[in-house]
Amino acid sequence: MIKLAETLVGLFVLAAVACLFFLAFKVSGLSSYHQSNSYELTAAFDNIGDLKPRAAVSMAGVKIGQVTAIRLDTKTYQAVVTLRIAKNESIPEDSSASIVTAGLLGANYISLTPGFSDQYFSNGGTITDTHPAILLEDMIGQLLFSMKKDDSKTDDGSDASTNTAVTSTAVSS
Amino acid sequence: MQVPVDATQDYVVANDLTFKRGDRYIFNHVNLTIPRGKITAIMGPSGTGKTTLLQLIGGALKPQGGSLHVNGEQITHFSRRELYRFRRQMGMLFQGSALFTHINVFDNVAFPLREHTKLPPAILREVVLLKLEAVGLRGAASLMPSELSGGMTRRVALARAIALDPWLMLYDEPFTGQDPIAMGVLVRLIRKLNDALGMTSVIVSHDVPETAEIADYIYVIADGQIIGQGKPADVMENQEPKLKQFIHGLADGAVPFHYPARAIDVDLLGEVPC
Amino acid sequence: MLTQVQRLGRGGIRKLLIVGDAGIVLVQTLFRFPKLAKSFPLLLKQLYAIGVFSLPIIIVSGLFIGMVVALQGYNVLVKFSASAELGQLVALSVVRELGPVVTALLFAGRACSAMTAEISLMKTTEQLASMEMMGVDPLWYVISPRFWAGFISLPLLTLIFSTVAIFGGYAMGVHWLGVDNGGFWNNMQGAVDFRLDIVNGIIKSLVFAFIVTWIAVYQGIRSVPTAEGIGLATTRTVVWASLAVLGFDFVLTALMMGGW
User: Fold this and answer.
1) What is the ipTM score, two decimals?
2) At CA C239, angle to CA C238 and CA C241, rounded to 5?
């Protein structure tokens, strides 16, 4: 009886420790990318929008790494983002990085578009071809601005034509 | 144990002992001595602080005034650690027996031994069985407290109280709620244990005949004062009204039947206060 | 008017006295570990009674809560075609809030009430007093193991609750509602931070554990030794412990959100 109690208490504590490991590694993804199984790249963006450390880095929709640090370069006034990429993912040196949003309202992440080079990035490499975040706020601002312009030009412009005009303005900018 | 024992010294000496609950005096400058090796009974109506006296002797309460020497030591200034050490020389039988309900009879009796001694299991078992034998319950060692009758429960509690061979045994109302047979057994047990183990016993009780049967000396307490003392026969003969009323169980007398109140006609017919 | 103010003041002082008294009991309990070799078996026994016996209710409620959060969350997220964010929603709400709070509330109802009832019954039947007369400190023998067992058990139970709840959400979301498996875990890992979410959740449950077990042992040891007193003390334990959990949850969340 006493032995059973002791065994069960031991199992209880072990189960809780196992749960802690589960929460740490499977839920929070703690150190799924660390020194030994990954390499570092940096990329400078004009605007990173809402990007946060620990955001995902993906290529063709597959997660291959994460953002580890973000800092501001005071010379160029660009945001320098440090990425950690899994070691077994080789990335051509002429690949481009862009900051995109998951869904309409989702979090920002970095999407890499592969290039065609035979040379691959090694630890400490820099992605030069970068596309800044597309900010929803800016798009809406431009939309309102162009709507106002359209309104002042023609009072009786139909809804449909205004919309197409706005969309094209937003995209082109 | 720690203090040199003077066999002629009184075990408990209270001088000018004063204890108050709120504004009410439980003990008002009481002097009393409990002689070594004898059975001393403290008697009195319910609610006169008989149990309080045991708690004072055990150090669970501290008096507001006066001194209280137990076995030559002034216990009122003991630190907690000293108090726990000191309590190993005394055993107490509680009114409700206070057996631990989650462990069986054997473990109950073994409890103080396990906590205070480092006896090997074989010897521990022997000691426990001997103590149970002394109260006639060796056969009940494996029962749980809930399986015992009231009388047996109290005897197990007695075995537990004497497990460490105390020098002083305190009995809090040992006879209440017992049938005549159990009562007779207990009376004989208390006397036998006291004489066989050379203990000093203090019995707090309001069961007059049983207590008078075994006590060597009786104190009667009422209203914070000692109203009578002496050998059982002397106390029984005493004509002091309060004492006589208590000893012979008269309903009304010096201790009034009624709790102090306003006159009944005022209470029933007068205006409702408040 | 003046009497009302007086009454308020008197009530306040009385409450303050209770807190002070509880503090004294706590300090006496905490600094009462004289014989470690003898204390450990007592602690183990209480861990068994308090921790292991609470497991079934914790696991079952964790499973249900995880599934309900997934179901509710899915129906909202699917409107924004963001159902892939379900993993994040389940994990964050469980790890940050539901895990620590619900476990503490269940623990208060399941374990703390039993603790209070047990201690106050031992007090009523003079078991504590007799222990004291036998030269064994009841604070050490009875109170301290229960306090530590509660303090250790609740965080462990919280970890188990959170894990089971996330699995419940996973089973609901991925296997029933058809959310993409990879997206579910990926999104979760991207959003849940170890330091900010999981460690903070554990800190919360440590604070809750401390408070609810403190309330339980205090109510037990200061109960009125009558049948009525035991009932009152048990009720008080559950009510006060639950309120304390919710109140402290607010305070801690505010502190943690404030960048702590």
Assistant:
1) 0.84
2) 65
